[in-house]
Specification:
The complex is a heterodimer of chains A (about 260) and B (about 200). Chain A is an alpha/beta fold and about 260 residues long. In chain A, about 30% of the residues lie in helices and about 30% in strands. Chain A folds into three domains: about 1-40, no CATH class; about 45-195, no CATH class; about 210-260, no CATH class. The longest helix of chain A is centred in the first third of the chain and has 19 residues, at about 10-25. In chain B, β2 and β3 form a beta hairpin. Classes of the chains: A alpha/beta (about 260), B alpha/beta (about 200).
């Protein structure tokens, strides 16, 4: 009677691909033959979402596959296991996904390792939406610079407790330049990052915390406004020597900058 | 059993050839014969190419010997052709690898594959050999589904695989069976170790 391991390699690969993440990590623990096989074939993962979350006590890997959600928790002392799993996923992911990172810890060498894995892929990771909550520009840079530019459409950055997050190197990256939509939360920016190209349609949302009479000052700076259909304050400006328009809208704690052409 | 008195299995019982349809005859390695419609054969790239190359007329398919499929048995081949008849005329899926590959197992396929694991693996092997893309998809998906939510120990039972320890023990046993001196040497080595010596060096 044939067993799984007696199947031709291309069939084994097909089955292993269907098992997908995270079942594949259980397969690796069945026996050394299956572990060797799984490690050698580089299975194709087709996750829709991948995320990792690092707190002071635990590490989590979260993923969505075929509309099902999976979560794996690791103790902070099990960093090696966490990293092994993350490495395999990042190396084997084939389809375009949403990538979320929530890390306000300061694990030494972590981003260098992640960057190394992403750089070692035969083709850049395809991400259409990137969401990062972290502390430093180099952390964002180590991820963002490795992704396939052009595929990445949406970028969301969050900082921690309104600390300053520099973005001056990020804005030079092709991945940044080609993205279409940006959401910024909870950090102080000092770099001029917006809308440098009036010919490209882009959308920025920043989420602000108004202090003192900041909201009033903001309105005074921009001048007369009109109330738009969704009850937000709206301003329009024309780029010099261009047909492009900049729309600025403000509603509650959300300010939107949008280039229209 | 000789070819002449072998029973002919009509897989597509509902569609006895009333109109002028071509029904090819195939024979498994245990001499079971099957009549399969031209349209159903198109699900198998291998068989479709084969019959195209043969260029049989409707007289040929009746008069010439059944086409032998040497390495698939009758039990498996019956399942394969039942599947092909049920899905005849359906488009053959193309996997471009760009989107998450989602394969649903239809009710008919689920019932067809409600078989023991040994036969299921044979069916997969046959689907691969005959290049029947969608049958390979659903059967591999079925084997993959068997892994969901199981522990490594449960998977060993499902997939009929030994644990590392059992595997090692089996290898040792096989080695010893081949070479009876192996155990003696090992025992001698253990004995010398007990006597407190690295006396081999």
């Amino acid at each position: 009677m044939p067993t799984l391991l007696e199947m031709p390699p291309e069939i084994m690969k097909e089955i292993v691909d269907f098992v997908g993440c995270p079942g594949i990590f259980t397969l690796r623990n069945v026996c050394h033959n299956l572990r060797n096989f799984v490690d050698n074939i580089r299975p194709s993962f087709r996750l829709q979402k991948l995320g990792y979350y690092i707190s002071s006590e635990s590490l989590f890997i979260l993923c969505d596959q075929n509309d099902k959600k999976y979560k794996r928790k690791f103790d902070i002392s099990d960093q090696d296991k966490f990293f092994k799993m993350l490495e395999m996923i990042l190396k084997c992911q084939k389809s375009t996904l949403t990538f979320s990172i929530d890390d306000t810890s300061q694990m030494p060498g972590f981003y260098e390792k992640v960057n190394g894995i992403l750089e070692s892929r035969p083709s850049p990771l395809k991400v259409h939406k990137l969401s990062i909550r972290c502390l430093y520009q180099y952390q964002i840079h180590s991820i963002l610079s490795t992704l396939e530019s052009g595929t990445l459409e949406k970028i969301k950055f969050s900082g921690r407790d309104m600390e300053t997050l520099e973005l001056n190197e990020i804005v030079g990256l092709e991945q940044w330049k080609q993205a279409k939509s940006f959401d910024m939360y909870s950090f102080i920016m000092s770099s001029p990052i917006f809308l440098t190209r009036p010919d490209t349609k882009r959308l920025f949302n920043i989420y602000v915390e108004w202090r003192w009479d900041g909201e009033r000052q903001w309105h005074e700076t921009l001048g007369p406004f009109r109330i738009s259909n969704n009850y937000s304050y709206e301003w329009r400006f024309w780029f010099p020597n261009s047909t492009g328009t900049l729309r600025v809208a403000h509603r509650g704690n959300q300010i939107t900058f949008e280039t229209l052409n | 059993m000789s070819v002449e008195n072998a029973p002919v299995v009509d897989v597509d019982e509902a569609a006895i050839p009333v109109e002028k349809k071509m029904y090819y005859r195939f024979e498994s390695n245990d001499k079971k014969e099957f009549r399969v419609s031209e349209l159903a054969i198109q699900q198998s790239e291998t068989l479709n190419r084969l019959v195209e190359a043969m260029g049989y007329t409707s007289e040929d398919v009746e008069n010439k010997p059944a086409i032998a499929i040497e390495n698939i048995d009758g039990k498996t081949l019956k399942l394969v052709f039942q599947w092909c008849e049920h899905h005849k005329g359906e488009a053959i899926p193309v996997d471009d690898g760009s989107v998450p590959k989602i394969v649903e197992i239809p009710e008919f396929d689920a019932k067809l594959m409600d078989i023991d694991n040994g036969l299921l693996f044979k069916l997969i092997w046959a689907a691969d050999y005959l290049n029947i893309v969608q049958l390979l998809n659903v059967s591999c998906k079925k084997v993959a589904n068997m892994a969901q939510g199981k522990t490594p120990a449960q998977l060993r039972r499902v997939y009929l695989l030994p644990s590392d320890e059992e595997d090692e023990a089996a290898k040792r046993a096989a080695q010893e069976a081949q070479d009876p001196r192996a155990r003696e040497v090992e025992e001698e080595f253990e004995e010398r170790k007990r006597q407190g010596g690295n006396s081999f060096f």
